[in-house]
Amino acid sequence: MRGENLEKRMASQTWDEVLSGQMDSDWADEINQFESQLELRKQGKLEEKVFAETRLRRGAYGQRYDNGQRNDGTGVKMLPFPSNGRTKGPDTVWDAPGMQRIKIPFGGLTADQMDTLADLSEEYSDGVCHITTRQDVQLHYIHIDDTPSLMRRLAAVGITTREACGNSVRNVTACPIAGVCRDETFDVTPHAEASMRFLLGHPDVQDFGRKFKVAFSGCRQHACGLVTMHDFGAIAVTREVDGVEQRGFEVYVGGGLGAVPHQARLFESFMTEDEILPTLQAIARVFARLGEKRNRARARIKFLVAQLGLDEFRRLVREERATLAHDDRWTAYLDGLPAYGEQPLKPGHPLDEASGSPAFKAWARTNVYRQRQPGYAVATVSLPLGDLSGWQLRRLADVARRFVGDTVRTTVEQNIVLRWVRESDLPALHRELEAIELARPGAGSIADITACPGTDTCKLGIASSRGLAAELERRLGEQMETLDEAVKQLRIKISGCFNSCGQHHICDLGFYGVSRHVGGHIVPHFQVVLGGKWVDNAGAYGLAIGAVPAKNIPEVVRRITDRFVRDRQGAETFYDFTTRVGKRALRAMLEELTRVPPHEENPDYYRDWGDPREFGIGDMGVGECAGQVVSLTEFDLVGAESQVFEAQLQLEADAFAQADALAYGAMLQAAKGLIKTEFIDISDDPDQIVTEFRTRFFDTQIFFDKFAGGKFAQYLFRRHARGTRPADRDTARQLIEEAQLFLEATHACQARLASQPVIPSASGAGARQETVT
Amino acid sequence: MTAGGADPRTPDVANLQRIALKIFLDDESVLEPSDVIPVFHRWIQTQAVDGLLIDVADYSHMATGPCVLLVAHEGHYVLDRAGGRLGLQYARRQPLDGALPDRLVALGRILLRAGQLLETDTSLPGPVRFRGHEIECIANDRLLAPNRAETLTAFRPALDGFLTTLSAGASWTLTREADPRARFGVLAHTPGVATLDTIAARLRQRHASDHPDDGRRSSAPPGRATRAEASAPVSPAPAGSGSE
Ligand code: HEM
Ligand code: SF4
Predict the structure, then answer these.
(1) Residue A620 pLDDT
(2) CB–CB of A402/A346 below 8 Å?
(3) Distance between CA atoms of A572 and A579, rounded to whole angstroms?
(4) A394·B93 Cβ contact <8 A
């Protein structure tokens, strides 16, 4: 029994028939099975939760508004999809558009695969192909009925969407210039590819509480592999044993971004190549057995490592490794390593430095990387917001065929690179890229911004990361010629919320979307994140220094970069500059920008970038009493914000106990502020605050986030229960992150409360006021 | 699409549903693509155009391709810059009732109505004018309509009928998309100049004649389509034509 998509209903032939024999038979069977499950769900014979996990594991994600509701700017409206109550997951309407994530292991693409992706973007999506922050491809506005055909067409060119989402091993990433890099220890591509093949569909990776991300890097110092933010990250290293060079990996575990980011910890300083796959398997088994399953918020492996301690985790993994039955696949690929390598399409030839137009030269300065192999270069196709049209992708496939063949990769900066370009071909390549509008210079510069989907398509988005990124790219692109060299090299990354899909922690200027309640309206804001490092495999994570209205963020960028140019000492990096100047001084520069003008003075602040709708209005009705109560709460929230900030300063000064105390204090003050909306005489006693908060806001679920439930409240409860245990850098840092999230949740809760209409009571006073007095 | 061997696909345009029609702006300089974003949002608020309207997607940062989309369940409305030419496209995603000729007319009516709304929108800098003598038709379905000569042959009767209704019988020059991997697409051009209002009125008439129960009488002369069909030369697309 199979699903009934549009073509099946209507037509004389199907993709299944046309492509028969061109798909790997296992993959074809899996897609048939998926189609059957789709059909069962349609008939109501499969539970919606089960179907949701099934489709997620095949990369078919939900998308914003798929609950059938949307605020059109005048109020929340129903979207009357013809689904007749049929759903594809809890609260997810069948006919609502969804997103399809397509797994591209280490970002490697062939020209034929690019053709197919282009076709699919046109026929099933909106004509746009999007490159993600983990080297994947995403198509949006996909109808679930179309997904089996889409998957078959991908399978016919060797791409599977299996385990692209869901609680499983996600895409295995690697440096986009692995194999051609001048600084790498060795090419990690075969190891990334072998790991992907080995783990794909492996029975030991099917029972995780959360996703598991793997990355390989060829060196320590550059960013490409972003090893420190992965559940399992491996950096290529060599050692000498009896005068013979031996290859291996420095292995890290337990890293991850997300709401509470963790730097991965060193698991083993030298793991031989043949141990990588069995160790991955052992880790997977330990994670599946001991990892948190019920509480998603604590289910990443980083929490397991933190909970067990690294030594115990390592011991368990080694014990598990010792019991594994041998599997030939662990090492089979190693035999092919000496012969492994890409075949260049043409013999190398150096570039005549005088050749090329001024536009070519400007492009080459930022978008061309000279390969280790003489006469060859890597050319970066810089994509605005990671987007290119189906037509552009198809023509880019032709360009690849002409210049490099199948040596194309996507990057975590949402670009595409063409490897093995003969240097002397670069001017011609540039002309061809110009003809398809893909010759944008400035790759890897401040105007090449990374952004998650944000409010455009993500259900969890708070502010428009893509809208802000487009605006900043436009402004910075125009100023490119006049920008200081040091500023040009900075990196901006933006997420629509704290989940950090846009990787805002690991760049020079990071932003993530939050909202603030101002005078009866909700105003889109971004937290400004400073202190992150892109190099050293994402060597340091930034911290938020304060929330600024979305519309003031371009000014934030201008002020901070101007100051960097003015006060920079010698060749100081931005990271060193922010550390030297200090967050207090940087925050002071932004103080004035945090002010939101009243609505009647400037309504523009109350709209997000690229979206003329009033930001989250509609169902709001604020009475005077609520306004007054809110202002007391607001007072505490402001106090709490400064405590979190102070905590960061203490952390930087290595005063961990003070940092911990301040972060805890911030949560208590925020909680107290909220309690005041109901119980004005709340004391400063932590026990009373926590008890009152629990009964009034946690047990009643008033504090609960629609998606995260009560997780943020748990941060307060856990810290409170811990008493005065000594803090170290890691625990203090984590508590600061948690306090920040607790504060965001308090802001959100306060906004929800304030937006409840004031119901006039018999006495004529507002119902909410009654509870106050 | 199909790796090696003979292409097993046979055109089946009778069942073709994913069709996109595009009209072109006469003077592109009157409009910044982002001007349309608030208009599309307003259309959602007022349910101004046909379909279940969902959201607006802003791709105005891209130099080509769709610029601003009004995402809808049945079909997207797209301010489209594909091929370097700004225009309004209606890209159908869900099936329509009726035979192919009727479906083309229905799609044309949906598109022209949206085009007329843009032409009369006072919030746009304007004046926005679409050409009534040039239209692009794309089959957004490589299974049923591979970009081959046979597809054009199969598609022409319905397309010619639709086009000659728009031009009141005058002939059209058809240029087929050259890249066999691209979607089957035809750019149709007729020598006379026509406004959007004119062709919209002709399409309404045709609809009225096809549906006499609606109470209106048709004046469309029978047999015109056949004559136009014979006279409409199909020029082969110039190599490397840049259309998307
Ligand atoms: C609780 C929910 C979520 C969390 C904690 C989360 C977290 C993350 C993180 C940390 C990353 C990137 C960094 C890394 O490689 O580790 C990521 C990637 C990404 N996320 Fe999310 N995310 C969530 C939900 C979503 C949703 C709902 C969407 C929108 C549909 C989304 C879209 C993306 C995209 C496009 C990427 C790059 C993806 C890839 O290719 O694997 N995320 N997510
Ligand atoms: S960071 Fe937030 S808004 Fe952006 S994609 Fe992730 S969950 Fe969505």
Answers:
(1) 25
(2) no
(3) 11
(4) no
* Ligand 2 centroid distance, CA of A496 (Å): 5
Chain B residues in contact with A141 (beta carbon < 8 A):
57, 71, 76
Partners of residue B1 in chain A, C-beta under 8 Å: 115-116, 119, 153
Question: What was the pLDDT predicted at A11?
Answer: 64
CA–CA gap between residue A564 and residue B3 (Å, rounded): 54
Task: Output the CA–CA distances (angstroms, integers) from residue B111 to A184, A445, B46, B114, B191, in the order listed.
Answer: 55, 41, 17, 5, 21
Q: Can you give the pLDDT at residue A616? A: 64
CA distance A144 to A147: 5
Give yes or no: residues A628 and A602 share one domain.
no
Using CB atoms, pick whichever of B1, B58, B95 lies closest to residue A119: B1
Q: How far is CA A61 from CA A64, A161, B133, in A?
A: 10, 11, 42
Q: How many CB atoms lie within 10 A of CB A332?
A: 13
B64 CA to centre of own chain: 18
Same domain for A643 and A613? no
What mean pLDDT is reported for chain B? Answer: 86
Same domain, A717 and A612: no
**What is the SS3 string spanning A286-317?**
HHHHHCCCCCHHHCCHHHHHHHHCHHHHHHHH
Can you list the residues of chain A whose pLDDT is less than 70?
Answer: 1-11, 294-297, 616-632, 635, 755-773
Q: What is the pLDDT of residue B213?
A: 64
> Is residue A403 domain-shared with residue A497, that is, in the same domain?
no
pLDDT score for A300: 82
Ligand lying closest to the C-alpha of residue A512: 2
> What pLDDT score does B231 carry?
36
Task: Look at residue A173 and tell me if it is in a domain.
Answer: no
Q: pTM to 2 decimals?
A: 0.87
The complex's ipTM?
0.88
Instruction: Answer yes or no: do A505 and A524 share one domain.
Output: yes
pLDDT confidence of residue A296: 67
How far is A190 from A201, CA to CA, in rounded Å? Answer: 19
Does A551 fall in a domain? yes
Residues A551 and A655 in one domain: no
Residue A695 counted as domain residue: yes
Interatomic CA distance for residues A698 and A524, integer angstroms: 26
What CATH number is attached to the domain comprising A676?
A: 1.20.120.330
Cα(A738)–Cα(A714) distance, rounded to whole angstroms? 10
Chain A with chain B: Cβ pairs closer than 8 A: 148
Cis peptide before B127 (omega within 30 of 0): yes
CATH of the domain at A611: 3.30.413.10
Give the per-residue pLDDT at A619: 27
Residue ranges of chain B with per-residue pLDDT less than 70 = 1-5, 212-244
Q: How far apart are CA A110 and CA A407, in angstroms?
A: 7
Do A765 and A705 have their domain in common? yes
Task: For residue A417, give its domain range.
Answer: 358-435
* CA–CA dist A206, A529 (Å, integer): 35
Backbone angles phi, psi at A230, to 5 degrees: -115, 155
Residue A56's closest CA among A70, A37, A39? A37
Nearest ligand 2 atom to the CA of A459 is: 8
A25 DSSP assignment: H
CATH, residue A420: 3.30.70.3340
A462 and A577 assigned to the same domain:
yes
A430 lies in a domain? yes
- Nearest atom in ligand 1 to the alpha carbon of residue A62 is 30
Query: Could you tell me if A625 and A759 are in contact, meaning their C-beta atoms sit under 8 angstroms apart?
Result: no
- Give the CA distances from residue A336 to residues A107, A173, A215, A331, A333, in Å, rounded to whole numbers and listed in that order: 21, 21, 21, 10, 6
Write the single-letter amino acid at B126: G
The single-letter code of the amino acid at A288 is A
Q: Which residues of A470-506 are buried (b: 16+ CB within 10 A; e: fewer)?
A: bbbbeebbeebeebeebbbebbbbbbbbbbbbbbbbb
